[in-house]
Amino acid sequence: MSLVEDFRCELIAPDVFRDVLHLLANICKECSLNFSYNSDNQIELVITARSSTMQAWVHFVHGSMLNAAQILTQPQCLDIKTDSLANAFRNMSDIMNVEDVRVLILHKEDLTNASTNSTSTATIANNNISTRRISITMENVGGELGSKTIEQRMYGVLLSSEHTPQMPATNGIHQWADITFSQQMQMAKVCDHYRHLNSKVKISLTTNGQFTMVCKGKDVLAETSWSVNFTELLSDSLSQSQSLSQSQSQSQSQSQNQNQNQSQDMFVGTHPDSDATDDEQEANTAPSCTLLAKDWLAVLSNRSGKRMVLGIQNSGCLLVYVFLKNLKSSEHEDVATYYLWHQLGDD
User: Fold this and answer.
1) Cα 296 from Cα 27, distance rounded (Å)
2) Phi–psi pair at 47, nearest 5 degrees
3) Which residues, at least 6 apart from 234, have a Cβ–Cβ distance to it below 8 Å?
4) Which residues contact 24 (CB under 8 A, 6 or more apart)?
């Protein structure tokens, strides 16, 4: 497959794109973002952020989120610094009203042998590493002031296929829990209180409907628990935001009645058992995940997220879906971003 010479990736909700970049920049200040796009004129954009303790993915197609199964096996991947991307978008959004614009990602130029004024880009070109230029454009879609376009260009390194990041999979997760916005803020207060002590948080999800967060650090041990509703999550239809938004209202009834017919691509939580003993609760504890309190706080502090659904893989990795409200799009009521953290261990 050959890379298309000119394509545009339209993100329906620029405010969501801005919030996502802000969140990733707060978490992974020293890592890079990767734009991934296919070469069959199918418009898609994947942003990948990495640090020593975590990995995060955001996947858009016309403003929708796709599942890992829908990603092409050979995407093109461009490496761009996190702060460069976030600052470029911030500078543009300060000039224009984000409610009246759309964001376009334009890839056009191969700079492998190009001479530029950028020392870093010239060095990359001399080392025969393919560099390309990405143009981020904000266009006014109408309004009293007429049309207006602002453009910023950045350089990035085209990564080889073996360095293309892999999207997280939902296998190994047998139940998902809905975490309310109020519960997110409660957890944020605990993490914020202990983050300066370099503490860790251990997150566990029991089959009887209890979500537990234990904060550990030097001379610190704080445990908090909440009752949660189990929910279903479509593993192959995540771009259908209407189904996802409906699952929130259905989650409580589904946790009380698990005899409904479910398709094979759904993960459904087990029935919460209010009469379970402490021993039964311990036996029903799902695999736990341990991560830095400051990293978990960065996600919890994302005030745009109205709903959070999380699950823990058997390997001990935490998979979190944060649903961001998109008020400007009639086609996609919710746009979801999702993140995956590798466990740090209990030592």
Assistant:
1) 9
2) -110, 125
3) 240, 243, 244, 247, 265, 266
4) 33, 47, 49, 56, 58, 82, 86
Q: Say how far apart CA 51 and CA 74 lie, in whole Å.
A: 24
Read off the tokens for 272: 């919460």
Sign of the torsion angle spanned by Cα atoms 118, 119, 122, 123:
negative
Q: Name beta bridge partners: 109.
A: 133
d(CA 318, CA 258): 24
Overall average pLDDT of the 305-320 stretch: 76
Name the E strands within 206-261: 210-217, 220-227, 229-234
- So what's the pLDDT on residue 292? 82
Q: Which two tokens stand for residue 193?
A: 């209180």
Beta-strand runs (E) in 96-219: 101-110, 131-140, 149-159, 176-179, 200-205, 210-217
Find all residues with CB under 8 Å of 30, minimum gap 6, and list them.
51, 82
pLDDT value at residue 246 = 34
What are the chain's domains?
7-163 (3.10.150.10), 176-341 (3.10.150.10)
pLDDT in tens, 319-342: 777 665 544 444 444 445 566 666
- For 127, phi and psi rounded to 5 degrees? -90, 10
- Asked whether residue 249 carries a pLDDT value surpassing 50, the answer given is no
Task: Identify the band that residue 194 occupies on the pLDDT scale cut at 50, 70 and 90.
Answer: confident
**DSSP calls for 6-66:** SEEEEES-HHHHHHHHHHHHHH-TTSEEEEEE-SSS---EEEEEE-SS-EEEEEEBTTB--
Burial pattern 199-237, b for ≥16 Cβ within 10 A else e, equals: bbbbbbbbbbbbbbbbbbbeeeebeeebebbbbbbbbbb
Q: Report which listed range, 45-59, 156-170, 206-220, 222-236, is most confident.
A: 206-220
Give the C-alpha separation, 92 to 311, whole Å: 36
